Each structure stands twice: as C-alpha cells, then as structure tokens.
Amino acid sequence: MTDQDSMAKINQFRDERHWRQFHNEKDLAISISLEASELLELFQWKTSAEAKQKPERLKEELADVLIYAYMLADNLDLDIDEIIAAKLAKNAKKYPVATSHDLKETKHHSFD
Amino acid sequence: MTDQDSMAKINQFRDERHWRQFHNEKDLAISISLEASELLELFQWKTSAEAKQKPERLKEELADVLIYAYMLADNLDLDIDEIIAAKLAKNAKKYPVATSHDLKETKHHSFD
Amino acid sequence: MTDQDSMAKINQFRDERHWRQFHNEKDLAISISLEASELLELFQWKTSAEAKQKPERLKEELADVLIYAYMLADNLDLDIDEIIAAKLAKNAKKYPVATSHDLKETKHHSFD
Amino acid sequence: MTDQDSMAKINQFRDERHWRQFHNEKDLAISISLEASELLELFQWKTSAEAKQKPERLKEELADVLIYAYMLADNLDLDIDEIIAAKLAKNAKKYPVATSHDLKETKHHSFD
Questions:
Q1: Which end of chain C is more exposed for a tag (fewer CB within 10 A), N or C?
Q2: How far apart are CA A29 and CA B62, in angstroms?
Q3: Which residues of chain D does B108 touch, with a Cβ-Cβ cutoff of 8 Å?
C-alpha cells in the first residue's frame, strides 16, 4: 500500500471526533457483533446468490465490521497481520492439510 | 508489509484444504457473526478491564473475526482497504468533525 | 399449565444461587445474543434438514435463549405474554393480512 | 392464562400471512440472532440504567426475540415449558446450589 493505511485512517477518524473516550473494549466488542448482524441481515430469508444482488450494502456492512475490529485491535495494541498469522498457524495444527480434504471431516470445520 | 500479506495467507490456508467449496457467502456471514459472539463472550459479566486480563483469547477471537471477514471480502472481490476508506468517507458525512465533539450528540453514534 | 410455570422456575434457579446480583440488564442482553449464536452455530455450513439431525443440541440452545430472555423480561418487570401480544399487534399493522400474501412483498419481511 | 396463549397467537399471525413457507429453521435461527442484536443495540455505549430509559424499545425488541424463538420451537415440535425445565435441570447439575454462591466461582457462569 502506498497510501496511508487503513488503521491510520480509522484512528484519524475517531481522534478527530474525540471518540476514543467512548471506545471501551467491551462496547467495541458489542459493536463488532452488532455490525456482523447488520451484515448477516442482508442474507436473512435469502440465498447467497440473492443477497449478492445488493453489493453496495454488503460492502458497507462488511466495512463496518472491519472498522470496529481494527479499532479494538488498536485499543489492545495488536497488529492485525500478526494476529491473523498466529491464528492461521494455530488453525493449521487443528486442521492439518493432509487430513482435511475429506468432506465429512472438514465440512463442519470451526475455528476455536 | 514485506512478507506475504494476510489475504494471501488466508486464501492459501483455505485453498490447501479445498475449503472454498463450502464457503458460500451466507455461511461466511454467519461465521463472522459467530466469531464476533465468541469474542463478545470474553466480556460477558465483566468490565473491559477484567476482560483484558485474558489477552491471548482476545487476540485469537478477534483474529477469527478478521479471517472470516477477509474471506468474505475475497469471495465478493472486494479490496479491504478500499471498502474501509469508502465507508469512513460515508461515516464522515454523517458525523462531521465540527459538530461531533459534543458528548450528547456523539456518545451514541452508530454507523448505518 | 398445572405445574409451576417457567418464569417461576427460572427465578428460583437464579435466586437459589444468589445470581441476581450479577444479572444486570446489559449483560443479560449480551447473554441472549451469545446463546442465539450458539443456536445459530448448529446451522453453520448446514441446511435446515442437516441441522435438525441434532435435535438435542437444538433443544438446549433454544432453551438457553428463552431462559435469558425470560430473565431479562423479569428484570424489566415485563409480562411475556403481554409483550408478545403487543408486538404482534404492531407487526400486524406493518404487514396487513390482505397485502402480505405475495411472495415479492413478504419474503423479506422484517419486524422493526 | 385464560386467553389464547402466545404460541397460538404467533402461529395465527404467520399462518394468516402464509409465511410458514419461508420459515425454514436456519433462517429462523438467523432471525433470533438478528433480533437479539437489535435488543443489544439498545445497550451499545450505555449502562444498564441508561438503556432502561427507553422501555418501549426494550419491550419490542425482547418481544421479537421471543416471537422468533417460539416460531422455531413450533417448527421443531418443541414445548417451550418442557425445554426450559429440561435445560434448567441440566444447568442445575453443572452449578449445584451448594457450591454456586461464591463470587469467584459463579460470576462468570455460562450455560453450555
């Protein structure tokens, strides 16, 4: 990325508005969950194909999930790329490549 | 970032396991919501300060939210940084800096 | 019902354990949301038909949603049957019978 | 209850509108989760005391959670009072009265 990165933009957004004082971690976690529901609502009573007919809303709600997730990461002094890499490494141990191709085994995979 | 970026790592993870066939967008949206709940569970019956005493779990659950959010973005051909920037621009119109400093106005801000 | 009703049983359960002191309304609302996710998790990557093959888990997770919803109603001095009747009356105005039979109109119904 | 009970009213509501055809169990579980989030949203950035200043909205959102939970119970041929009683009995084994009074043990109780 050559431009200012997402985390910096998000922090600038909340700092310009003096909002960090409200952003305790519990309410940020609530906010992530609420935005995830607004995203999920676009799929209520629909198939994936039907829901994808509203790409603008999908884009916005997914962005809101990410924005709050980035804010919580920043509050907790976490690096996005580092925590993703660490969790992928842990998930890889739970689901080794060699034994995770079979439908019955993997269809219902869940990260802990 | 000089190393392989997060999106590439996430896609490699699911492609090595042939999981993309299961990753329809509706179930990915469900997964984001479920992981957001697992994150929120770490705050159940607790203050933010109490919850932060388990940083390892917070790190992992937040990473799972991000991993599924990135997967859905990839399925929808969306660029993470672009959708964040576009949504911040929209939120900025809803909450102009000049009028968003006051507690009464801004405490209960919500992105649409 | 001839036996002690559900609300009385739920209150007895928490009072015997002296738990009401922890049951502030915000955390009860969080708990309802978490239990709703545990219920939803039984449908992750599955069709309804597949999920119904685990009736025991469905029964338990649905019961947990109800138990926390009843607790919150009790904390707020609300009568379950009254608030359901009042909301149905409101929903009925939003979706009149005469105009709510058509697929296009009603498939994506949502209560406010 | 001397009047028509809640379950009967809820079923009448959806049957008059011919909505049962849309009410597959997976989307009902999604709906419960979405309504739980709308309820939780009333607590976002607030204390319990602040949120209780909007009793009308709390009443309505809690009712929506209950309405969808009752619909799913009906779809699955489950009796509300029975599944609550069965789950309370199971929870009682996990948290025996005699050992569940202590703050450290019980504050972070969670039903499975």
A1: N
A2: 9
A3: 44-46
State the Cα–Cα distance between residues B35 and A72, nearest whole angstrom: 14
Q: State the ipTM, two decimals.
A: 0.91
Per-position DSSP letters for C47-95, written without gaps between them: -HHHHTT-HHHHHHHHHHHHHHHHHHHHHTT--HHHHHHHHHHHHHHHS
**0.90 cut: is pTM over it?**
yes
Distance, CA of C79 to CA of D5 (rounded, Å): 13
CA distance D71 to C88: 13
Q: How many residues does chain D have?
A: 112
Looking at beta carbons, which residues of chain D come within 8 Å of B110?
Answer: 41, 44
Distance (Å, whole) CA B88 – CA A6: 10
Residues of A in CB contact (< 8 Å) with D are 22, 27, 30-31, 33-34, 37-38, 40-41, 43-45
Which residue has 């962005």 as its token pair? A63
SS3 string, chain A, reads CCCCCHHHHHHHHHHHCCCHHHCCHHHHHHHHHHHHHHHHHCCCCCCHHHHCCCHHHHHHHHHHHHHHHHHHHHHCCCCHHHHHHHHHHHHHHHCCHHHCCCHHHHCCCCCC
The answer to whether C80 and C70 have CB atoms below 8 angstroms apart is yes
What is the residue-level pLDDT of chain B in tens, covering all 112 positions?
Answer: 445 699 999 999 999 999 999 999 999 999 999 999 999 999 999 999 999 999 999 999 999 999 999 999 999 999 999 999 999 999 999 999 987 775 555 566 777 7
Contact B27 C37 (CB under 8 A): no
